[in-house]
Amino acid sequence: MIRMLASVTNPEEAEIAVTAGADLIDLKNPSEGALGALPAGTIRACRETVAGRRPVSATIGDLPMEPDGVAAAVSRTAATGVDIVKMGISAGGDPLACIAAAGRARGAAALVGVILADLIILTNDLIRAMADAGFIGVMLDTGVKDGRTLRDHLSDDSLAAFIGQARDAGLWAGLAGSLRLADITPLAALGPSILGFRGALCQGGARRDVIDPDRVAEVVQSVRDAGSLGWVAARVG
Ligand SMILES: O=C[C@H](O)COP(=O)(O)O
């Protein structure tokens, strides 16, 4: 089964995402960037709204790859009580040291690394470092939200290789990055653990807009349908 991640910005949107059937409620502030962080109070309020009905993740912000700053943000975000802290990996600085520092700072939260595939070259070293630091998953996303999707930056073969490397390292593998309805079936065929969305859930398809319950339900259903087709194809083919 492929899971569906919905990025939301406040308790009202979190409730919409839960009601529509999203599997993972991801808290972020799209106005602050690809992985913009929400204030701790908003994260806590969203967590209270979700009330254990779904796992909740929160992003630490689009930070430079500097270990002390990343560790402080991971620790601060974990202290809100979310299940998963999502840490972005971009170019410059020392990504490998940041991954190790995040692993030491996570407290009781699980960690998921988000490799911004348009900003840093995807390497197996990053994935291996996450596994060594105790991360549970790794996602690809895009850092620049200019209408291009993850599939504009990486071929299906590269995405399949990423999923294989993540699985080999014992991590679940997620894909995101301005994904639209039309991307779901081809990406589901690659066998990711989870597909993540924000823009496609919003009125007008703009990620800073509010999410639309009908769009969320449509994306959830499409991920379900594509996931089952892949399941059947894997057994019949
Ligand atoms: O974690 C997933 C992201 O929120 C995806 O956002 P996007 O679909 O607007 O690129």
UniProtKB/TrEMBL annotation:
Record keywords, A-Z: Lyase, Schiff base
Enzyme class, UniProt record, top EC level: lyase
Record SUPFAM superfamilies: Aldolase (SSF51569)
InterPro entries hit by this protein: 4HFCP_synth
Gene Ontology terms for molecular function: lyase activity
Active site (record annotation): K28, K86
Catalyzed reactions: 2 D-glyceraldehyde 3-phosphate = 4-(hydroxymethyl)-2-furancarboxaldehyde phosphate + phosphate + 2 H2O
E.C. number: 4.2.3.153
Job of this protein: Catalyzes the formation of 4-(hydroxymethyl)-2-furancarboxaldehyde phosphate (4-HFC-P) from two molecules of glyceraldehyde-3-P (GA-3-P).
Protein name as annotated: (5-formylfuran-3-yl)methyl phosphate synthase
